[in-house]
Amino acid sequence: MGDNRIDVVVADDDPAVREALADLIDSHPDLELVGLAINHEQAVRAAVDHHPRVVIMDVHMPRGDAPSSVRAIRDQVPGARVVALSAHGERETVLNMLAVGASGYLVKGTPAEEILEAIIRAARDQFSMSAELLADCTEPLRRAERASWRFEDLVGNRLEDSFLELLGHAPCGVLIVGPRGRIEYANAHTRHMFGYSSAELRDKRLRDLVPERYRTASEQLIGRVFSSPSAMSGRRRDGTEFPAQFSGGHLQGRQPRGVVFIADLSQLRAAESRFRQLIESAPDAMLIVDTGGRIQAANNRTEALFGYDRDHLIGRAVEALLPDQPLTVSLREWDDSLEEPVGHSMELVGRRSDAKQFPADVSISPLRTEEGLLTVLTIRDITEVQRAQFVLERSLELLEVTDRDRQALLSHLVHAQEAERGRIAADIHDDTIQVITAASLRLQQLRRRLRDPDEQRVMDKLDETLKLSLSRLRQLIFDLRPSSLEHGCLAGALRGLLEQIRTETGITYRLEDRLTAHPPAETMALIYRTAQEALVNVRKHAHAKTVHVQLLGLDDGCLVRIVDDGEGYNPLEVESRPGHLGLSLIQERAQIAGGWCRIESEPGSGTTVEFWVPLGAPPGAPLDPADSPEGDPQP
């Protein structure tokens, strides 16, 4: 073995592809095959044993997963590079492989010369990717580049007019102070607060706006990177004072400038008064509690609910009203927290002054004050609510018994359909694609030995036919098993279908995903198949230019709306013709799932298809994406 030869390990679970790759590497004078593997475990072991420069590895093999194998090879054999080879080319799979350190990603069916070149490039620490994958994977980067902007374009070394306009709308007073301590700018809030015009404030100093006793403190605000708020008094033009809070900082630029923010606290005091009135007028009992669990304030509804006078409650532990429950622990979790606390609710048991207990809904909300973090408790007696809930639950149990059989049937049907589609897709991937890939590699090796141009042209046409077959088979696998649907992304699966229709027919599309809930696997498959049936009708019959698809959450379910601008039709006339079962299948699928379907169309006005299905999880074993792949354009 010469020093310049590149050691290569081949890992592929299909014997025909593995042998074809081995022969291809042996045929190249600069490459040497040092190991073979049929699964992920063997691929890692062969890399550790032989220390190859390049490992060319099938992504989908048993006994492991590709990202873990790449990590293991990179960790244990730092000099090794991995080139991925797969029948699939989904963006998510490609990006996952590149993220863990793969040096290339090729789709099976790539010409033999490109495979050899990718191995040599990987040995040089260069990257390779099939051309059809590169455009798809770089599209997010192009969108990010188009959306990027530089902050320096918005604010330069001087105060821009747009920046001053922004300060003019600030909810507090803002002053810009020049390097000599003179006021250069005051927003409208400041002018109104102090009673000066812009001309009168210009060239004044900050100390001119505060009483004599605060002048030293005001000067200390200027020139700092940032200062914490200071409580002082402001002095208006007429000499009157008002409570205010000052904070300062500085602006970067050619000449350093200071910025001062001023808040009028007199409005805050008025707000505190309104807050007390709000608590007193609340329909529920309300308490203000400190972090130690001591009651600081209570409204009149608290007196009526618990039977205590509020003066008796002030200073007492909240456990007197809500005993033996983890409320105090919940309050203390907020103390000294770096994150902004978020309120929540708890169902606890309240105890009145006569020792009678009642179920209570307690809403716990944080309240930040100058004295520290307090908690507002809103307490409601839910005795009647729980009684009504009990009656409702018993009624729902009766409804669930009648609905269970229908949901179980739906689950069984969807599971059986998707399992069969998955089996077909797996057979295509594990058998047909592998055989055609091996045949393509053999054909390319044979072509290099031919010298007659006519024979080479025949071989080129045959190679193109095999590539077309591989492309169609990969598309069929996508139709049978949309990868986005397998990963729980309904919108991604529909986007892939719409992109396929756009490529084949030129119909442009717009997809809106406003579905916040995550449907169960069976329901997601049913939604996809139903929408797929409607989109197949658009592709075949509508003669449309655009189609708009919406996924909406409605009434604990998913509403799908598909609107095209095609030539339209008369639904009653078309559905009565033999062989036009597409729209009937859409309606039947929605109804068997407990939903509904609506179709509107007329000649010359396009077509709207809407269907809704509930998102409740059906009984029975859920679909496992690994065992029951999804996707098929026809039922």
TrEMBL record:
Catalytic activity: ATP + protein L-histidine = ADP + protein N-phospho-L-histidine
Pfam families in the record: HATPase_c (PF02518), HisKA_3 (PF07730), PAS_4 (PF08448), PAS_9 (PF13426), Response_reg (PF00072)
PANTHER family registered for this protein in UniProt: NITRATE/NITRITE SENSOR PROTEIN NARX-RELATED, NITRATE_NITRITE SENSOR PROTEIN NARQ
Organism, as annotated: Streptomyces niphimycinicus
Enzyme Commission number(s): 2.7.13.3
Superkingdom per UniProt: Bacteria
Positions of post-translational 4-aspartylphosphate modification: D58
Listed CDD domains: HATPase_UhpB-NarQ-NarX-like (cd16917), PAS (cd00130), REC_NarL-like (cd17535)
Keyword Transferase: yes
Alphabetical keyword list: ATP-binding, Kinase, Nucleotide-binding, Phosphoprotein, Transferase, Two-component regulatory system
Record flagged with keyword Ribosomal protein: no
Entry protein name: histidine kinase
Listed InterPro entries: HATPase_dom (IPR003594), NreC/VraR/RcsB-like_REC (IPR058245), PAS (IPR000014), PAS-assoc_C (IPR000700), PAS_4 (IPR013656), Sensor_HK_TwoCompSys (IPR050482), Sig_transdc_His_kin_sub3_dim/P (IPR011712), Sig_transdc_resp-reg_receiver (IPR001789)
Stretch list, region Disordered: 616-635
